[in-house]
Specification:
By secondary structure, this protein is α+β, with helices and mostly antiparallel strands. The protein has a domain at 79-239. It has helices spanning 12-29, 88-98, 240-247, 272-275, and strands at residues 38-39, 48-51, 54-57, 80-81, 83-85, 109-116, 127-133, 136-142, 148-154, 158-160, 164-166, 171-174, 180-185, 191-192, 194-196, 199-201, 221-226, 232-235, 251-252, 259-261, 292-293, 295-297. It has a five-stranded antiparallel sheet, covered by helices on one side. The longest helix is centred in the first third of the chain and has 18 residues, at 12-29. The two termini are 20 Å apart. Keywords: Membrane, Transmembrane, Transmembrane helix.
Length: 301
C-alpha cells in the first residue's frame, strides 16, 4: 500500500521526480501527447492528485491487495475520474440483482459498492458491486440506466489462461503479482483500472463491435498489466487474429498435471483424471512440454 504524502507543498526535488515519473508513464502508455482521462484506483488512500505542484491526499475508500508500481505516483493529473462508495440501499439492491435475485444460505455478503463520479458520457459501466456467496466471488457493472453491462465470477483456485482476463468492457479478473492495469479503447486513450478483491474495474467508453471483420481487425480494447516494479507483464491481443492464436494455445493447469485446452476433434472427457492427465496424454493430445501453464486466481480465501 502506498504511503500518503505530508500535506503542503512538495520539496522541489520530490516534485521534479514525480513529474519525471508521471511523464514516463504517459509516454509509455500512448504516443499521443494529448491529455487523457484516467481512472483513480479505488485505493484512494494511496492516491495522490498532482495539482499545480501540490500533493493532495484523497480519502480512503477501502483496502486493496495490490498497489501501484513502486516509486510511481498514480497518474491522475491528466484528468480525474474518481470512484466513490454508493449508498447502502443502492448497494443492497444491486447486490440482490447481481446475485440473480436469488436467496443464498448463508446470505450473500455485500463486499463493496462504488460508482464513477465523472465517467465518460458513453461509459459501459458507471457503478460496480462485489458480492460473495456459496464460495464464489462475483462482480457486476451497471450502466447509467442501471442495466447490468458487465460482470464476472471466480472462486479461489480457478485456472486463468493469462494473468489478466477481461470479463466485459473495462473489468475482469487478475492474479497475484499484477499491481497495475490499464485499458485502452480502440482509437482512445488509456484508462487506469482499480484493483480490488481480485477484480479490476474501469469506467471506459463503449466501443461498438466491428462485426464480422478479419484477422487484422483490431480488438475493441487493449489491456496492459504491470508488476510492482512497473514492468509490463501482459498485453492483450491487438487483433482478432492474435486473439484466435492465443485461444488456440495448448494450456495446462498451474501444476502442469492436467490439460486445459485445446482438445482434439471428437475428444470426449469421460474421466477427467485420466483423459486430461499430462502424465499419460490421451491420443491426439499435444506434448505437454509444449504447453504454457495457466495462472491461478488466488486472491481470496
Amino acid at each position: 500500500m502506498n504511503t500518503l504524502p505530508p500535506e503542503g507543498d512538495l520539496r522541489p526535488a520530490t516534485r521534479e521526480r514525480q513529474r519525471a515519473e508521471l511523464t514516463a508513464i504517459v509516454e509509455h502508455e500512448s504516443a499521443n501527447a494529448r491529455p487523457r482521462r484516467l481512472l483513480v484506483p479505488l485505493a484512494a488512500a494511496a492516491a495522490i492528485a498532482l495539482i499545480a505542484g501540490a500533493a493532495i491526499a484523497v480519502p480512503a475508500l477501502s483496502d486493496h491487495k495490490s498497489a501501484g508500481p513502486a516509486g510511481n505516483p498514480n497518474p491522475v493529473a491528466l484528468g480525474v475520474t474518481v470512484f466513490t462508495p454508493i449508498a447502502a440501499g443502492q448497494q443492497t439492491a444491486l447486490t440482490w440483482e447481481c446475485g440473480d435475485k436469488m436467496t443464498y444460505s448463508p446470505p450473500a455478503e455485500k463486499v463493496a459498492g462504488f460508482r464513477a463520479v465523472n465517467p465518460p458520457a458513453d461509459a459501459v459501466a458507471t457503478t460496480f458491486v462485489v458480492m460473495h456467496a456459496i464460495g464464489n466471488w462475483k462482480f457486476c457493472g451497471y450502466d447509467s440506466n442501471g442495466k447490468r453491462s458487465t460482470g464476472g465470477i471466480q472462486k479461489p483456485g480457478d485456472d486463468m489462461m493469462d494473468p489478466v482476463e477481461m470479463r466485459g468492457a473495462g473489468a475482469g479478473s487478475y492474479v497475484e503479482g499484477v499491481a497495475r492495469i490499464t485499458i485502452t479503447p480502440l482509437g482512445g486513450q488509456p484508462y487506469e483500472a482499480d484493483l480490488q478483491h481480485g477484480f479490476f474495474y474501469a469506467s471506459v467508453p463503449n466501443v461498438p463491435f466491428a462485426g464480422k471483420g478479419t484477422d487484422s481487425t483490431p480488438t475493441e480494447y487493449m489491456v496492459r498489466a504491470y508488476d510492482a516494479s512497473g514492468a509490463l507483464i501482459y498485453t492483450s491481443p491487438k487483433t482478432r487474429g492474435e486473439r484466435q492464436a492465443r485461444d488456440a494455445r495448448c494450456v495446462v493447469d498451474a501444476t502442469g498435471e492436467r490439460f486445459l485446452r485445446p482438445y482434439p476433434p471428437g475428444f470426449k472427457i469421460t474421466d477427467p483424471e485420466l483423459n486430461l492427465s499430462t502424465e499419460h496424454p490421451a491420443a491426439g493430445m499435444p506434448d505437454p512440454k509444449s504447453c504454457v501453464r495457466a495462472h491461478t486466481w488466488n486472491w481470496l480465501p
